[in-house]
Amino acid sequence: MLKGIPKILSPELLKVLCEMGHGDRIVIADGNFPSESVGKNAKVIRMDGHGTCEVLEAILQLFPLDTYVDHPVQLMQVVPGDNVETPIWDEYIKIIEKFDGRGGNAISHLERFKFYGEASKAYAIVATGESALYANIMLQKGVVV
């Protein structure tokens, strides 16, 4: 046990967060995301019993977002024609605001297959059991000062 570390963060995930350097990306994936196939060149960490919001909040306690890019956070755009609401995105904004002054301005949206392409280059993918649709979120690491 360590003091000050969110209990949800496993030793494996802590190691990955520590290994990541400036500009590296991590995906917090919902339960529908093809984590293993998209992440075949990444470190895939299973957190099936947890949701994306709790994982995001824990990671951002230790992980600075990149200040050298306008949008260090990316979400998967809703596919045109999908009649889907994304209230989880509002939750993400609230969480990001706690740790980064840009809040929602730190976020951009990528078309579904572009998101998959960028996610395939991520350092790590955290596979959660999140059931909300379009709940995938990609973070780009900044500099620890």
Describe this structure as you would to a colleague.
The protein has 145 residues and is of the alpha/beta class. The protein has a single domain (23-140), classed as RbsD-like domain (RbsD-like fold). The chain is 30% helix and 19% strand. It is built from five helices and six strands; from the N terminus they run H-E-H-E-H-E-H-E-H-E-E. The chain has helices at residues 11-19, 35-38, 52-60, 87-99, 112-119; strands at 25-29, 43-47, 73-76, 107-110, 124-128, 137-140. A six-stranded mixed beta sheet has the order 2-5-1-6-3-4. Helix 4 (87-99) links the parallel strand 3 and strand 4. It is globular and about 45 Å long. The mean pLDDT is 97. Keywords: Isomerase.
Question: Could you write a compact summary of the structure shown?
Answer:
This protein is an alpha/beta fold and 145 residues long.
Number of strands: 6
As for the CATH topology, it is RbsD-like fold
> In what order do the strands lie side by side in the largest sheet?
2-5-1-6-3-4
Helix/strand order, N-terminal first: HEHEHEHEHEE
Show the helix and strand layout.
Blueprint: H1 11-19, E1 25-29, H2 35-38, E2 43-47, H3 52-60, E3 73-76, H4 87-99, E4 107-110, H5 112-119, E5 124-128, E6 137-140
Parallel strand pairs: 1-5, 2-5, 3-4
Antiparallel strand pairs: 1-6, 3-6
Helix pairs in contact: 3-4
